[in-house]
Design goal:
20 strands, 35% helix, single chain, 13 helices, alpha/beta, seven-stranded mixed beta sheet, four-stranded antiparallel beta sheet, 531 residues
C-alpha cells in the first residue's frame, strides 16, 4: 500500500492533522490507521474539557502561561507554552466550526475551572468533552474523499534504513522513516505501508499500570516504535496520576474517572471521617495541581491504612451537579453511591504520560519524515506535570503546525520503493496465550508497586531487574511465534515500562510528578533525560 501521508492513530491529534491536510490538498492521499474502530481513542475518554483563554475581560494569555509554567515545575519549554496558549483559542474555534457543541450559558460558553488554573477557562460538553470532540472529528473526516481511515490495523514497526540492511544506532545521522509495517487484524497479514511522510499520534500508555483511567488500547505503541527506530524519547519519568478515580471494590479496567471539573465545581477532598485534608498540603487545597493532590491522597491512604479517600459533593446544588456531570452521577449510582447523599470514594490512577517522543515546535521528531502529535509526544508544554485540560489544546495546536510543515515540503519527498515485505519465516502459532496474559499481569504489578506515585532507588532497581526478565521472555516469543495484537501490545508496554523506570532512575531529584524518597529535594538546575 502507498499513501502520501500515513497517520498512525485516530484521536484528536491524528484526525485533526488529517483533516487539515485533506482540506488544503485534495490531491494528496492520506491514510489514518486505527487498531480498533475510528471512534475508539484516548480522546474519547477525556471528561473535563479543553483549556483556552476565552474571556479576555477577566482572563489573559499571560495568566494561562503562568499557570502552565507553575504546574510544569520548571521544566516547561517557554516557546512551546506560548505557542499553545496563544494559538489555542483559534484552534478551538476551528473545531467549533466543524460542529463541536460546548456547553453554554445563554449566549456565552459555560467556562469551567480545574486544579492549577487561576481563571475559569475550560470549555466542555457536560462530562463527555472528549467523546464530543471525537464525534466532531470523525464526522468531519468522513467528508474528504482523499482521506481514508483504515480500521483494525495495528502498526507493528516504523520502516527505516534498518530494513534496507543498514546498521542504525541512536548516533546514526539522518535516520529516515519510509512508512510502517502494520498487522491487518481482519486478515492476520502484516502489510507494508509506504508513505512519503508519517505521523505518529497513538496516544498514551496508561495500561502499563494496574489502575488507569486510560482505555485498553493505551499501550504506548507509538513511543515504543519510535524508540525501537532509534528516535529520541524524553521525560518518561513524568507519569501523571489522576487523584480522583472512582474506587470500585469489584475492579474495573479502565477505572472510571471523576473529572477534576467536579472539584472545580466545588467538590472537597476528605478522609473517611469527613475531614478535609488538602489544607495540610497546599494553599489551593482541593484545587492544587494534580501531582500535589495525587501525592496527598496517596499519603493520606498510607497514613490511615484506608483503601480510598473521598470526594464530598453533598453540599452542591443537585440540579446543577446532574446537569454538569450526568455520566459521573449515573456511574456512581450504578455501584450504589449517590454523590449528593454519599461521599464518592476515590483513589489515584495512572492518567497521562507527560513525556514521550521528543518533537520540535513543528512536531518534527529526531527521525526525518516522521512527525508526532498528542499524548505520545514531549513538546515541552507540560514539563514535569501537565496542567489540567491542556492536552487536548496541545494536540489541536500541534496538528495544525504539523500539517503546515508537511504541506511545505511533501512535494520534494519521494517514496522509498525498495522496502522488503515482512519476513515471518520460522515462526509458529503461539501454543499458550497464558504466556502473554500472565506477563502483562506481572508487568502491571511491577510498575504499580515499584514505579508509582512515590519511588526509591531500591524500588526502581527491583523494577528494572524484573522488567529485564520479562523483556527476554517476550522477545523470545516475538521471534519464534506469529505476531498477534496481544503480543505486540505486551512488547510495547514492556518498552514503556523500561523507559519510565530508566528515566526515573536518572532523575536524582524530586520534581513535578516524579517523587523519590532518596532525593526528596528539587535541584535548582534543569536536567533532561533523553534516551
Amino acid at each position: 500500500m502507498k499513501t502520501d501521508v500515513l497517520i498512525i492513530g485516530s484521536g484528536i491529534g491524528g484526525l485533526t492533522t488529517a483533516i487539515k491536510l485533506a482540506d488544503q490538498r485534495p490531491d494528496l492521499s492520506i491514510a489514518v490507521l486505527t487498531k480498533t474502530q475510528e471512534k475508539e481513542s484516548n480522546t474519547s475518554y477525556a471528561q473535563g474539557g479543553v483549556a483556552a483563554v476565552w474571556d479576555l475581560q477577566v482572563d489573559s494569555y499571560e495568566k494561562h502561561i503562568a499557570d502552565t509554567l507553575d504546574a510544569g515545575d520548571g521544566l516547561c519549554d517557554l516557546d512551546a507554552v506560548e505557542a499553545v496558549v496563544k494559538e489555542g483559542p483559534d484552534r478551538v474555534r476551528d473545531i467549533i466550526e466543524w460542529g463541536a457543541r460546548f456547553d453554554k450559558n445563554a449566549a456565552t460558553y459555560d467556562l469551567g475551572r480545574e486544579g492549577g488554573h487561576s481563571e475559569n477557562r475550560i470549555l466542555h460538553y457536560k462530562d463527555l468533552t472528549g467523546w464530543e470532540i471525537q464525534r466532531t472529528l470523525v464526522e468531519k473526516a468522513d467528508q474528504f474523499a482523499n482521506l481514508q481511515v483504515l480500521e483494525h490495523y495495528f502498526a507493528v514497526d516504523l520502516i527505516t534504513q534498518h530494513h534496507l540492511g543498514h546498521n542504525v544506532t541512536r548516533l546514526t545521522p539522518g535516520i529516515e522513516c519510509y512508512g510502517a509495517y502494520a498487522l491487518n487484524k481482519e486478515t492476520d497479514e502484516i502489510e507494508t505501508i509506504l508513505s512519503r511522510i508519517t505521523v505518529v499520534a497513538t496516544g498514551g500508555a496508561g495500561q502499563v499500570y494496574r489502575n488507569t483511567t486510560n482505555p485498553v488500547i493505551a499501550s504506548g505503541d507509538g513511543v515504543a516504535m519510535v524508540y525501537r527506530a532509534k528516535g529520541h524519547i524524553e521525560n518518561m519519568e513524568f507519569v501523571q496520576f489522576h487523584p480522583t478515580a472512582l474506587y470500585n471494590p469489584a475492579g474495573e479496567n479502565p477505572v472510571f474517572l471523576i473529572s477534576e471539573a467536579v472539584r472545580g465545581y466545588g467538590g472537597i477532598l476528605k478522609n473517611k471521617a469527613g475531614e478535609p485534608f488538602m489544607q495540610h498540603y497546599d494553599r489551593r487545597e482541593s484545587l492544587a495541581p494534580r501531582d500535589i493532590v495525587a501525592r496527598a491522597v496517596d499519603n493520606e491512604m498510607k497514613i490511615s491504612g484506608e483503601e480510598c479517600m473521598y470526594l464530598d459533593c453533598r453540599h452542591l446544588d443537585k440540579e446543577g451537579f446532574m446537569a454538569h456531570f450526568p455520566t459521573i452521577y449515573e456511574k456512581c449510582r450504578s455501584i450504589g453511591i449517590d454523590p449528593l447523599n454519599d461521599m464518592i470514594p476515590i483513589v489515584p490512577a495512572c492518567h497521562y504520560l507527560c513525556g514521550g517522543i521528543k518533537v520540535d515546535l513543528q512536531g518534527r521528531s529526531s527521525i526525518l519524515r516522521l512527525y508526532a502529535c498528542g499524548e505520545c509526544t514531549c513538546t515541552g508544554l507540560h514539563g514535569a506535570n501537565r496542567l489540567a485540560s491542556n492536552s487536548l489544546l496541545e494536540a489541536l495546536v500541534f496538528a495544525k503546525r504539523i500539517a503546515e510543515d508537511i504541506l511545505s515540503l511533501i512535494d520534494t519527498v519521494p517514496f522509498q520503493e525498495k522496502i522488503p515485505d515482512w519476513n515471518a519465516a520460522g515462526t509458529t502459532e503461539p501454543k499458550e496465550m497464558v504466556l502473554i496474559t500472565q506477563s502483562l499481569k506481572e508487568l502491571k504489578e511491577i510498575m504499580s508497586s515499584y514505579v508509582g506515585i512515590v519511588r526509591s532507588n531500591q524500588r526502581l532497581k527491583r523494577a528494572m531487574d524484573r522488567l529485564h526478565l520479562l523483556y527476554e521472555e517476550t522477545e523470545e516469543l516475538y521471534h519464534t511465534t506469529v505476531l498477534s495484537p496481544q503480543l505486540c501490545e505486551l512488547r510495547n508496554l514492556i518498552t514503556i515500562a523500561y523507559l519510565i523506570s530508566r528515566s526515573a532512575s536518572m532523575r536524582r531529584e524530586s520534581r513535578g510528578l516524579h517523587y523519590t524518597t532518596d532525593y526528596p529535594e528539587k535541584l535548582e538546575f534543569l536536567q533532561y533525560s533523553i534516551l
